[in-house]
Write a structure and sequence with these properties.
Number of strands: 12
CATH topology of the largest domain: TIM Barrel
Oligomer: single chain
CATH superfamily of the largest domain: Aldolase class I
Strand order of the largest sheet: 1-2-3-4-7-8-9-10-11-12
Number of helices: 13
Shape: elongated
Distance between the termini: 33 Å
CATH class of the largest domain: Alpha Beta
Radius of gyration: 21 Å
Bound molecules: iron/sulfur cluster
Largest sheet: 10 strands, mixed
CATH architecture of the largest domain: Alpha-Beta Barrel
Number of domains: 2
């Protein structure tokens, strides 16, 4: 886990709470300050976050100046946001190196879900995905992942989400070190304190990393981006199938011993026949997996068309007849660019300047 990271020699926000407490305790002692200062400093990282050390008004000026020098609080800059008529809000964050990533805020009754990114771009090239078409740029650091939540926790108009899903840009298990630390920061009561059952990691199925996720003691939820239920069908839309084919993925899930959700974007003619539904049921039913059927986001994938409403209902009915619990998800934020990677693609396309100086902020 990166204790310092890409930008700073010491970045407390990149540390798990045990590490942060030790480092701050040693630093406070070096400054000749009393040990109780540790309990005033550490909660300001995540549990009661502040935008800058200057806002820690319970600390003496000398300690604030020292913290600013030693480990300044890095921020994600809100570069743009779009609000949908259904309440979904999509954010584009500029990272300190000028790259950008997205998050999506999805309110539903009392639940406020934030969909977060784990990488800039993605190496996996799923054909229905705007992020996949960008290619891979870099992994996010732990603070950049959990920082998407932190930024909203700092904003009284939003606050801390109740649920977090790793379904934004990037493949979380490809960035295992960053995501592993970010999961701790999201979940630990000394940090953001979001319950493990309210945090979902969604992956195409990188099997060695899946085993590492399964080995964690917290009951994080797992979603598999399946999108096709046979090797032949999946290979045509998800290149990961070559490396980690479905039969091996299913064997890993059998060993996972936790409830799994399959994400399945319905694409006309590619994966939406009743034979596809039956193949999906053969995998999902024995695992007791829930299937989330998702509409293809219009405009997110050139050359692909969404399945019709009637065929979507037939597909779902066939799954249910075969004993599979299937939900039909509405596509949230249809009037904004809510498909993975679309806001960034559009922001860049509309800017005549290089990415580092894009300023299309609507915030
Ligand atoms: S669906 Fe996920 S894994 Fe596939 S290209 Fe998009 S971000 Fe990457």
């Amino acid at each position: 886990m990166a204790a310092s990271g890409y930008y700073l020699d010491v970045n407390l926000l990149n540390m798990t709470p045990d590490d942060a407490e030790h480092r701050v305790a040693a630093w406070v002692a070096e400054q000749g300050a009393p040990p109780y200062r540790v309990d005033q400093i550490v909660p300001r990282l995540w549990a009661r976050p502040i935008g800058a050390w200057d806002d820690a008004t319970d600390l003496p000026r000398a300690l604030i100046a020292g913290l600013e020098q030693w480990s300044p609080i890095l921020r994600l800059e809100r570069q743009a946001h779009q609000t949908s008529a259904d309440g979904t809000v999509k954010f584009l964050w500029r990272l300190p190196d000028g790259l950008s990533v997205e998050s999506v805020w999805i309110p539903e009754g009392k639940r406020r879900t934030l969909c977060i990114s784990s990488q800039v771009g993605c190496a996996f090239g799923c054909v229905f995905c705007a992020t996949g078409r960008m290619g891979f740029e870099r992994h996010l650091e732990p603070w950049e992942i959990a920082g998407q939540v932190r930024e909203l926790a700092l904003d009284p108009a939003f606050g801390k989400p109740t649920n977090v899903v790793f379904m934004g840009m990037g493949e979380p298990l490809h960035n295992w070190d960053g995501v592993d630390a970010a999961l701790t920061i999201l979940n630990d009561a000394r940090c953001l304190g979001i319950g493990a059952r309210h945090i979902t990691v969604s992956t195409v199925g990188i099997l060695p990393r899946l085993a590492q996720l399964a080995a964690r003691r917290e009951q994080f939820r797992l979603a598999i981006s399946l999108h096709a239920a046979t090797t032949e069908r999946r290979m045509a839309i998800m290149p990961i199938e070559k490396k980690y084919p479905i039969d091996r993925l299913v064997r890993s899930l059998e060993a996972f011993a936790r409830r799994v959700t399959f994400e399945y974007v319905l694409i006309r003619g590619a994966n939406d026949s009743l034979a596809d539904a039956e193949a999906l049921a053969r995998i999902a039913a024995p695992l007791g997996a829930l299937v989330n059927l998702l509409p293809l986001h219009p405009g997110g994938a050139p050359g692909l068309e969404p399945t019709s409403g009637a065929q979507t209902r037939r597909f779902a009915r066939r799954l249910r007849e075969l004993g599979v619990k299937a939900t039909l998800r509405r596509s949230r934020g249809l009037d904004i660019s809510a498909a993975c990677g679309q806001l960034r693609v559009e922001t860049e396309a509309s800017a005549s300047r290089p990415r580092m100086t894009v300023t299309s902020s609507s915030s």
